[in-house]
Structure formats: C-alpha cells, structure tokens
Amino acid sequence: MANKTFIPAFKAKVGDWNYYICQMKYAEVARQVNFAHELNGNSELNKLLQRGLTSRTADIKDYLLKSDHRFLGSLIIAAWGGDPQYMAVQIEDRENALEGLDRNFGILTFDGTQNYFALDGQHRLKAIKDAVMLNPELGREDICVLLVSHMESTEGRVRTRRLFTNINRNAKITSKSENIVLDEDDGIAIITRRFLEEHPFFKESQRVKVITKSGSDGELKIAPPGVSPSDKFSFTSIMTLYKCLKSLAFDLPVTVKNDSQRPSPEVLENAYSKLSIKIDDLMKNCGDVANLFMNVSSAKELRAPKDKEYEGHAFTRPVVQNAVCEVLAHAVGGGDISWEDAMQKLNLLEWRIGQAPWISVFAPPKKMLSGKDNSNLLFKILLAHIAPRSKQSIKDARKEFQEVRGQQYPIAYDDLVKDNFDN
User: Fold this and answer.
1) Which of 32, 117, 291, 409 is most exposed, with the fewest beta carbons within 10 Å of its own?
2) pTM for the whole thing?
3) Which range marks the domain in which residue 162 is found?
C-alpha cells in the first residue's frame, strides 16, 4: 500500500497555471524525480516530454561535488497522478502581526502513487542523481522545486508539453527537432505527430525515426534528418517528414505553417486530410514505395541491397524525399504544373538510386553525396524533369550537373525538351 506524501508548499498562480513552491532534499530528487521517457517508454511519441541531455551535465556534477559554494536554481517538476490535494494552513497570530502572510501557505498531499518528471532543469537533475550516487552526504541538502500538477490524459499531455516547450523556448533555445516532437502551437509539428499516430503507413513502430539514443541514465537524442542505409526499420526521420509536410502545405491556409499560434481544430483537420492524400499520392507514384516497403523483411533490403546499393529505391532516402517535396512546392505551388500531371511525371521516373536524376546525390556503386551542392543540384535536375520553366533552365541544370559531378548528364537535352515542351 502506497504511503501518503505531505509537502509544505506555497500556492502560486501565473497565467492559467496553479503551481506550488516546495522544498525537496537532493536524495528525494535523485530517488523520485524521473526523466519523462522513463515513465512511458520512448516509443510513444505523444508522451515524449524530455529533452536530450548533453555533456554539460558533467560540469554541474563536478560543481556539486567539489565546490563549498554550490547552489542550484529551482527545478520545475510535473507531478503525474497521485490525486493531489492542497489544504491551506492558517498560522495562529493573536496580535495580527502576520496578517495575510499565511494566505497561500499550506500542505500539498499525494496518495503515494505519484511520479515526478522534470520540465525544466533536466541537466541539473541528472547531475544531482550522479553526484548523490558518488557522495550520498549530498542527499541531505535542499533544492527549491516548482511543482505543477499533470493530468494523465490526452489534454493533460498536450497542456504539459506546451508548458515544457514554452519554458525551454524562452529560457534557452530548443532544437528544431525537439520542437517538432513537443510544440503544441506549430501546426505542421502537430500534423507530423498525428501522422505518426494515425496514418496507416507512418504509424507503424519505428517506421519514422524519432529517437537515436535513450539510455538508462536519461540520455536522449532526437533523430537527425538522415536515416542510416543499414537501418532495418525506418523509412524516414521525423525531421524529414516535418520538412516534407511543410513543403506540401503550399496551398493550405497560412495559419497551418505559422509555428507560433495553434490553428483551429477545423483548420488542422482539413490540413491533415489534404496532406494525407498528397502523401499517399507520392508513395504510390514514387515507385510504389509504400507497397514495396511493407513487403520486405528489412528496410535495408529496399534502401541499400547488399553489394547492390545502386539498385536501392531512391525514395527511401530522406534527401530524395525532401527534394521531391520541395520541387512539388515550387512547381505546383508556383502554378507551373498541376498536381495530377506532376504525379504522372514522377511515375515515369526510374526509381533506382543509381540512375538519373538521383545520381545528383549518389555515386555508383554505393556512395551517397551529402554536400549542399549535390542537394541543390538534385532540386534543379528534378525540376528539369518535372516542370522546367524554360528550355534554358534545362540547359542550366545539365551544365550544373557537369560542373558538380564531373560528367555529362545521361538524359539528353532534346529528350527533356520533348518530355516537357513538345506536344
């Protein structure tokens, strides 16, 4: 049976949040306060509330262990569950000398089933855990804790995640990938997470790479844009999916792409529906990649077959996914071609990575070319296939290919002109 927890606290309010100013021993913090992914597992994107920890933690740990003048600022902690109850306490004061001073003082009570996790101060939390392990005497020291109550529900997770993001955005910059995971105001970030939760293809476990590392010590890192050729599960990364959806939102209301004010539920619903249709069109017309992906035992077989990397499917490479979506935003969004005609053009392309136009970013037999010049080249060459604005733009793209890759582009100028300008 869980034991009740009683915490002396000052009740405070800011905005639409009630919070409590409390005191905890380092030992209590080390033992009871968790990193968010320890509570639910990092596979559940909607419950991912914790930033990655960096090497800065070691400096804080050494400071706690070595300095007699050690002092750490407050931790902001969310209490998960525990049926929190607050009871005001009045101080007996017959002479009224303390009138009003006990107005917000009381006892915060939990039923003992609560968990705590850090919304701000995760580096300090990790340092405290490490320092107390090395020197248990530090466990007797005190730290101020600002405690907010978190409700375990969809609305509760949204509300707490927004608080986390706002705290970190205003205190120190969160990375773009962290904001994609956490932000509750960025419309494209919200839709990206919904794809991971609801879209028939992307909701499958590990289909989209979100986290690259999550250790028992709380270390956690958001996946970079690329996906390793040897990855057995992932089709893309959360960063690339976000970029692709943002590109494909070229004809959606501007509020969808505003990352500082949450769109209305109706706008979000409409945007998700339209982007789902576009993504499904892409997955079909870009070499039927979704169907092929679901029928291999390992993503590596499709992305980079052993000893035949040049036979790999181009649209399993994030750099290609991003380029295709950017070209569509430019060409369809710019009125140069209809969405339907663009899909037909994509359908006619050769989707082996060792063939044109993908050799802009791939050197057979197996080397990806990751330079900025190569990704820019792919955009221009792909545009020459899909919707060039002039014959000169085709010449310019082929010339740039010669300069960047040191060889002639294998698709002749006349063929590209015929495909795009000759009726």
Assistant:
1) 291
2) 0.72
3) 5-173
